[in-house]
Protein: L-threonate dehydrogenase
Organism: Phytopseudomonas seleniipraecipitans
Amino acid sequence: MTAISNIGVIGLGSMGLGMARSLLRAGLPVWGYDTRAEVSQAFAAEGGKPVEALIESAAASDLLFIVVVNAKQTEDLLFGEQGVAYRLRPGTVVIACATISAAAAQRIAKRLAEQQILMLDAPISGGSVRAAAGELTIMASGPAAAFERCESALAAVAAKVYRLGDEAGQGSQIKLVNQLLAGVHIAAAAEAMAYGIRQGCDPQAVYEVISHSAGNSWMFENRVPHLLAGNYQPRSAVDIFVKDLGLVLDSAQDAVFPLPMTASAHQMFKQASAAGLGREDDIAVAKIFPGIRLPAAANEEM
């Protein structure tokens, strides 16, 4: 295998931009592509190389991180009108980072293999802060040759890379286990805060006590400060969990396996999305509870 000499990050959202910055900081040859001009300009201002000619840039690359939202966007990018996959050189590695079903990961990997393209099924976890710090967790499965080629790039963007097998699907399936827990924990954190507020508790006191007690979770500790600040700018949006918990439930339906807590949390996120909160931070699911007043942002209290 030749050394990686050209890396692309397609999708400079909250995760992809942080990953591109981490690759840049590690001194690796990276370019970034996004349809939003302001994002590309921000990357350029930091010394990054934004590109407009996606097909030509991809065709000259050894490694592509695809950091989009779902399986449809991934497949459209690779096999749709743009047809990036058909322009890649044999031996190129595609790292598919979207949260998708195991079946979709297997389908995409098979189609890429027909073009002699290697793929890592490599969903990511950690949020925008860890993406920017190069401290993501990556749940990856795929051929050993792909892991070997991508070693330096994966090390630049992740604190932990779990190798979960030689075939696509296992990475995505374990990511769905993670999303089940993340979604349920956020919904539970929202319910707990709403309940405490309704019972007359000081929201800050609830957070301080619970975050140092047995009822704490990573999601409670991470998301509740957004609620306390009245800041619902999305780090991860409500609609992400409408999608991801839907994927979990679909896979369980195929297996005829009950997931009662997942189903309840999914309905909570769907209710929030239906109320117009889909693009707000996922802790905005707390807004579905009636008869309570959530903390307001500082500029709203004036």
